[in-house]
Amino acid sequence: xxxxxxxxxxxxxxxxxxxxxxxxxxxxxxxxxxxxxxxxxxxxxxxxxxxxxxxxxxxxxxxxxxxxxxxxxxxxxxxxxxxxxxxxxxxxxxxxxxxxxxxxxxxxxxxxxxxxxxxxxxxxxxxxxxxxxxxxxxxxxxxxxxxxxxxxxxxxxxxxxxxxxxxxxxxxxxxxxxxxxxxxxxxxxxxxxxxxxxxxxxxxxxxxxxxxxxxxxxxxxxxxxxxxxxxxxxxxxxxxxxxxxxxxxxxxxxxxxxxxxxxxxxxxxxxxxxxxxxxxxxxxxxxxxxxxxxxxxxxxxxxxxxxxxxxxxxxxxxxxxxxxxxxxxxxxxxxxxxxxxxxxxxxxxxxxxxxxxxxxxxxxxxxxxxxxxxxxxxxxxxxxxxxxxxxxxxxxxxxxxxxxxxxxxxxxxxxxxxxxxxxxxxxxxxxxxxxxxxxxxxxxxxxxxxx
Length: 451
Known about the structure:
Elements: H1 11-41, H2 47-56, H3 59-85, H4 89-124, H5 132-142, H6 146-160, H7 165-189, H8 194-216, H9 235-267, H10 271-291, H11 293-311, H12 315-342, H13 344-351, H14 355-368, H15 372-387, H16 391-412, H17 422-446
Helix pairs in contact: 1-7, 1-8, 1-10, 1-11, 2-5, 2-10, 3-4, 3-6, 3-9, 3-11, 4-5, 4-6, 4-9, 5-8, 6-7, 6-8, 7-8, 9-10, 9-16, 10-14, 11-12, 11-15, 12-15, 13-14, 14-17, 15-16, 15-17, 16-17
């Protein structure tokens, strides 16, 4: 099999070959922030839960950066893969160059706008007089690395789709290892606290970004980029990229909106209690990011394989890929649901040694993940729509689960006296159940059965 040829090997083998390195790469990317939270959650003294809450307030803003990164990454990469499957390498390279140009521009614009608006944004997101300082300190430094996030994370898919998933994994791992080393040095050794955590993240993301770009500009790349190419984007392709990538944008943007609404709702319970519940939600979001990585990896790893075979009109192989991803996704999420139900305390203590946070967070953690298995159905449905270039369906189901179900429930359920604050955490499983069944069912009847 030639490098990057996805229509001769067994489909499940190809997907796993993409998914395993990609999952590890995504784990590495998530570790940038999760490691920060782990160290900050175990800071000595009273600062640990307040620092964790402060960093948690920045999540919606970080998710917003990820949303704009995904706008071009999740549109450009599948289109590029389909072009390669159809044998049109000229179009594939144009898509790669245009995506890179847009990632650079987006990173610069996001950094400037967020710097100018960070103070009102943080207070809008639920910051208190206790937590604003920590959130501001973290964000001021983190934003300096915005362009490293958009180029490094945003272009890693173009390394994978050329048949080099292990290299993509290695590039992201290099940054994570550096982050793991620098975090305790900056946070504890130099006494920088949240500033040290942010600085370690920026330096690590810089390393990963340099490695990704070095490959894309190197001779080993099938679609080699030259420095002069950066200034030659094909603007006519931007619309195609954005239309398909809008689903990925919506998924991240709605995460931003949900996190913002959750923090704002929890902050209504008063300064001390609100800060405590925001710390709990920060841990739950961290657990979700951590255990959601394999399902993200398997669905993302399937996309270049499915897109390639769809472009090559190998419909039976496309169906095999969808079946395999669904089976693996459901099996994995069922297993993780059992683990959380049996060992909630263990997941909480990873991120905090504050007994008040641990005791308060036990029931919300269990409630939040009650319908975790249905999240895999949502991901399988949406990733299939994206892989086949059906952006409208993917966008609709992103909006359905987050905007039309989670956000209204997050605002309404706490008004029920018997639920109170627990209604904020109950909104997630309800949305997973409805959204997952709707997304997967629609994909099955409108796409899978017609292939």
